Amino acid sequence: MDRIPILKLGGALIVTIQVDMHDRLALALEEDLTAMIARTGARGVLIEISALEIVDSFIGRMLVSIAAVSRMLDAETVVAGMRPAVAITLVELGLELTGIKTALNVERGMALVQARLSEDHDRGSDLEGLED
Amino acid sequence: MDRIPILKLGGALIVTIQVDMHDRLALALEEDLTAMIARTGARGVLIEISALEIVDSFIGRMLVSIAAVSRMLDAETVVAGMRPAVAITLVELGLELTGIKTALNVERGMALVQARLSEDHDRGSDLEGLED
């Protein structure tokens, strides 16, 4: 396996991390994601990590880097399905996953992305009585 | 990795196959899927196999078995993202994936599941002028 599949669904790209990440795989994922955001105009990247029992600083950095690059391309990154033990470890390690939103599961993560898409939609249409 | 993560999204369960399947993993996936169909009332199971360069008779049987069990629980199985080379091999091997719908990608597969959900919805509501 040299590539992690990226699923396009609505305005989101969904990635499920199931395998041990290594340098080359992480780099390939970042490249594939950015290429796909550019090609599809996706507004959100959902990374599902429920299979990961450990998120070390390498994976933490990879997530932060993917989020930063995606943001440049105007897509928001949401990490979904983090195990409670992983959350505890991340806080203990001081890895803050800057710039990354989290969601309990993919469904809620998708809701975040959809909210963003409908904001776009509102902004694009002629709105009357716009508040705030 | 002893479990393949299953993502619930709308009325569908989405599974991305990325790793080499072996007996125990295939069995665990089937068990997890059936339990999750029962718990969530999902109407569709989407299995994304774009990462698979080879679908041998073991994986073929696994897919057919998952589809058969899912059907018992009133959920339809859609295999998405099959590589062209895999399709050729399956036909050559005479593996017909009975009872399984296929879709070019997850987005189209999701459309199949959504169509089924809206059929449910129509049937549940008071319909007038129902044809056929």
UniProtKB/TrEMBL annotation, chains A, B:
Pfam family, one: STAS
Coiled-coil stretches noted in the UniProt entry, renumbered to this chain: none
Domain STAS: 1-113
CDD domains for the chain: STAS_RsbR_RsbS_like
InterPro entries found in the cross-reference section: Bact_StressResp_Reg (IPR051932), STAS_dom (IPR002645), STAS_dom_sf (IPR036513)
PANTHER family (alphabetical): RSBT ANTAGONIST PROTEIN RSBS (PTHR33745:SF1), RSBT ANTAGONIST PROTEIN RSBS-RELATED (PTHR33745)
Designated name of the protein: Anti-sigma factor antagonist
Native source species: Methylobacterium brachythecii
